From TrEMBL:
UniProt-recorded name of the protein: Uncharacterized protein
Superkingdom of the source species: Bacteria
Region feature Disordered, mapped onto this chain: 1-21
Organism: Sporolactobacillus inulinus
């Protein structure tokens, strides 16, 4: 008998709130990378 914690089960389900957070995070990180690339000269 396997009991799955409610929290773990909820984490696997795609919730709108989580999707929104991921979307905001990826958009923000993309913007930061874009801005840093624009302002900081490449060191490589």
């Amino acid at each position: 008998m396997i009991q799955v914690p409610h929290r773990a089960a909820a984490e696997q389900e795609p919730s709108p709130e989580k999707e929104e957070k991921i979307a905001i995070f990826s958009r923000t990180s993309f913007f930061i990378v874009k801005m840093s690339r624009k302002h900081v000269p490449p060191t490589h």
